[in-house]
Amino acid sequence: MRSAYIQGDFVYRIGVGAVCETLKKGLDELCGDIGRESVAGVFFGMPCYGERPAADEASEEIRLAIAPLPVYIENDVAAAYAGALALQSGIVILAGTGSMAWGRDRYGAMKRCGGWPEFFSDEGSGYWLGRRTLEIFCKQADGRLPGGKLYEIVRAHFALEEDIEIIVRLDEMGYTRKNIAALQLLLMDAAREGDESALWLYGEAARELALLAKGLRGNLELEPGSPLSYAGGLWGAGELILAPFKEAVSGLDMTFVEPALPPVLGAVLLAADRFDRAGLPGVKQGMLGQPDAKQR
Question: For the chain, which domains are there?
Answer without folding.
Answer: 11-86+261-295 (no CATH), 90-120+203-256 (3.30.420.40), 127-194 (no CATH)
